Amino acid sequence: MPVSELAARVGLASVVALWCALVWRARPALREPRLRGLWITVLATTTAITLFQRCVVSALTSTGIDVHMVSLVRNLIGVLSAGLVLLFVVDCRRSPRLRRSVVAGLTAALTALLVMDLLGAGQPIGAASAQRPASATTAYWLILSVAHLLGDAVAVVVCWRYSLRTTERDLVWSLRLFAVGSVLALVFWCGYLGHLYGLAPALLPWLSMVMGAHGFLRAASLLVPTATALARTATALRTSWRLWPLWRDLVTAVPHVALASPRSSRLQEVLRPRYPPVLQAHRQTIETYDALLTLQQYVRPDAYEQAHRHARRAGVPEDRLACAALAGAVGQARRAVLVGVPPSDPHPLPGVTHGSSETLLGIARMWPTMTDALPCHAHPSAAGSRAEPR
Length: 390
Known about the structure:
By secondary structure, the protein is mainly alpha-helical. Helix content is 74%, strand content 0%. It has 14 helices and no strands.
């Protein structure tokens, strides 16, 4: 595949990714002031990148729009996006005077570009030159390039430094991805400036690929909160799936600890949750821990040691012996509740004092093999009948 064709596909894919990210994050970003600046900045950048795509330029010119007008609008929006990048990073530093200076400089740059274009508007620009600036004057080119280079250079420094000072994980990754995207933008505009002066005529397809990668990073910086939410949801679903057999058996034996009775299958519990996945995983963890505390009244004094010896004889790995012993002791206590053995003084189980989710998941892992490892308590009625004289 020719480099130019590959560059066109990468560019189009990045544009699609950017617009999807903008639409997906529009509602939460516009509601929250600290995210609004990033969203608007990416919107301006996306519009400019969209007007760089040959297929978009061809579609617009086929409707009767002059290619010169497309180039002019693209360049004006590009400078606007560079100014918005500066405003976004200045907002991070909370400097009103600097913000006013950026607004004044941005207004001056846009006005200068528009005036220069109007003065040179009679110069013809062919369809093959759709990727060139709207005006061929040196001042026009310099203003356009310097505006982008200045905005992206400041974004790299400020975003990276600020990401080292904040502790909010989503903000850290958003700023770092934005900074890396700005590095690629710097590479693009340095190379594009050389291309315009004829220093490297064969660079344009490669520069288009750099701009496409820049677009993907801008989309990624916008989607960091979504990625975090998806990762949190996936972790919660995995926790619910792994904990479900233990949770079901324990809350069946000790139903008063559960807000709702278990469904008939683990798949239904995960695919049709009563609560959001994160809340459901948290609820099942708390209910499992509460059930363990209740079952300590039915644990025999030597149950943990017996289960530990049984697990060792069964060849359970050393790092799982503690959880296997807990699973065996709890399994015996659960069956004692089910056959009606009365409670006694609690016998605390080691390792479950604070309800660690790792410990509970470890017990759940060993639950299928250890739940029936120890013999069941004798039913009180059976014990009483054996005690009566014949």
